[in-house]
């Protein structure tokens, strides 16, 4: 039984979740306890008590703690990668890469601890000096999704701790194993008891208690748009600080002048790897008509050559869907697309393998209308659609034609188109001749419109959320 971490102690909750592998439902990853609302409130209380103690630690002590965490993650990347692949379904090479990213994030913020900045300014009034200080927010609730079970927790927890906050952390109920392993490493990093707390359990129980508690001063959430909107309504009413990442319906524009082979690779890598379960995945291919047929034929050929299989098998390129509910949702969207009149060029079928898992062939719809549900709603699976565009202006209009705005890409050899697209596409991140999925950890992450709310994540911009600004005046 893997337990919750509350006030420096491993505590059993009120229920148990069986963690099963989506590659092989006979493979039990572990038994994980479930926290109650009372457990959550106890963790929040301990975090409130520990936060000023942690914030009072020297910069070097905080930096050393984060460096310890990052170093152990990197030293154990293969072991942790196997665990991640088993419970989430990423193929092993992707899982190890995700673990590596988590270690790098902690290392980065170990350095950022020593670069916390303020300002000293002259006043407009004589004899007055001004100091602008960055201080911790306080108790931070962190709620993470199942698709990146160690990287996303890392890029939220690391800056929260770096800037002197305490943390109550609720991972996705589907993937507690990677979160528990990360938390166990953090528990040995020398933090004061209660500075970091792990609460595994249902969002309606644990997450709700976090969102409603007046002791929680800030909430960083990544998940569905519906859950994000509900969280916003509840937490904003008590003036909590919010950072919400809520998905995307990301376009990849292919111009007539694009390098065709490069464009096909950008499309396949960005849309289908990690089983399409990335909020930055490009699920809409908006293709200028002069290259349309050659592009969709090339993508179809590439998809039909991909090997879908067990996440731990060396020859697998795409793993299973994360669980039965997501699997059924994906297949339902395939039916929706066909009913709407889009042409299913390839894929979208259940696959049988040696083990019982949630395997499906990557799907490509072609001749899709921009207002179809499969072109407007986030599916979160290995399904993409191709939409023909008359010209660049039409392609840009189509790219901006959804409620989301997280990541967008364009494949072109034209500096004119690339420059205009970077400036005018409605998204928080823009990729030119590279997949829409795949970001660096030292620069800001986030979107516009319905994709994001609040300050950016990652890099030095993380300070905007995890600190509060104080302006101090001194008469000298």
Automatic annotation (TrEMBL):
Protein name: Aldehyde dehydrogenase (NAD+)
Catalytic residue list: 245
UniProt keyword terms in alphabetical order: Oxidoreductase
GO molecular-function terms, A-Z: oxidoreductase activity, acting on the aldehyde or oxo group of donors, NAD or NADP as acceptor
Family that this chain belongs to: Belongs to the aldehyde dehydrogenase family.
Pfam assignment, any one: Aldedh
Domain Aldehyde dehydrogenase: 12-471
Database matches in PROSITE patterns: ALDEHYDE_DEHYDR_CYS, ALDEHYDE_DEHYDR_GLU
Top-level taxon: Bacteria
Signal peptide interval: none
UniProt-listed PANTHER family: ALDEHYDE DEHYDROGENASE-RELATED (PTHR11699)
């Amino acid at each position: 039984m893997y337990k919750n971490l509350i006030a420096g102690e491993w505590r059993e909750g009120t229920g148990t979740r069986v963690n099963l592998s989506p590659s092989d439902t006979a493979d039990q990853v572990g038994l994980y306890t479930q926290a109650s609302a009372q457990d959550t409130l106890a963790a929040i209380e301990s975090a409130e008590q520990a936060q000023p103690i942690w914030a009072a630690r020297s910069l070097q002590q905080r930096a050393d703690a984060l460096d310890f965490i990052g170093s152990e993650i990197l030293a154990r990347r293969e072991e942790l990668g196997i665990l991640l692949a088993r419970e989430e379904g990423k193929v092993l090479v992707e899982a190890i890469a995700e673990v590596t990213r988590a270690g790098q994030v902690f290392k980065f913020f170990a350095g950022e601890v020593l670069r916390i900045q303020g300002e000293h300014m002259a006043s407009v009034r004589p004899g007055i000096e001004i100091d602008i200080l960055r201080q911790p927010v306080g108790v931070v609730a962190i709620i993470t999704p199942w698709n990146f079970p160690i990287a996303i927790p890392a890029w939220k927890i690391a800056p929260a701790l770096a800037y002197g906050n305490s943390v109550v952390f609720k991972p996705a109920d589907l993937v507690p194993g990677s979160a528990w392993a990360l938390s166990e490493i953090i528990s040995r990093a020398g933090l004061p008891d209660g500075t970091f707390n792990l609460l595994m359990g249902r969002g309606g129980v644990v997450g709700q208690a976090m969102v409603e508690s007046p002791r929680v001063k800030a909430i960083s959430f990544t998940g569905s748009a519906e859950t994000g909107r509900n969280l916003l309504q509840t937490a904003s009413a008590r003036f909590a600080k919010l950072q919400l990442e809520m998905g995307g319906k990301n376009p990849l524009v292919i111009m007539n002048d694009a390098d065709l082979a490069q464009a096909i690779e950008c499309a396949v890598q960005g849309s289908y790897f990690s089983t399409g379960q990335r909020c930055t995945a490009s699920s809409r291919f908006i293709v200028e008509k002069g290259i349309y047929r050659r592009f969709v034929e090339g993508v179809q050929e590439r998809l039909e050559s991909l090997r879908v299989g067990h996440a731990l098998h060396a020859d697998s390129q795409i793993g299973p869907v994360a669980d039965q509910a997501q699997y059924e949702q994906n297949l339902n969207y395939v039916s929706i697309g066909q009913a709407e009149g889009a042409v299913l060029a390839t894929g979208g079928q259940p696959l049988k393998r040696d083990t019982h898992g949630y395997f499906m062939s990557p799907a490509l719809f072609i001749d899709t209308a921009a207002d179809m549900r499969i072109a407007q709603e986030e599916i979160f699976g290995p399904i993409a659609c191709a939409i023909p565009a008359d010209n660049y202006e039409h392609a840009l209009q189509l790219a901006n034609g959804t409620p989301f705005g997280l990541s967008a890409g364009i494949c072109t050899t034209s500096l004119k188109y690339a420059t205009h697209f970077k400036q005018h596409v409605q998204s928080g991140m823009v990729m030119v001749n590279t997949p829409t999925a795949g970001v660096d950890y030292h620069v800001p992450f986030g979107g516009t419109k319905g994709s994001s709310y609040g300050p950016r994540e990652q890099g030095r911009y993380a300070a905007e959320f995890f600190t509060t600004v104080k302006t101090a005046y001194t008469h000298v």
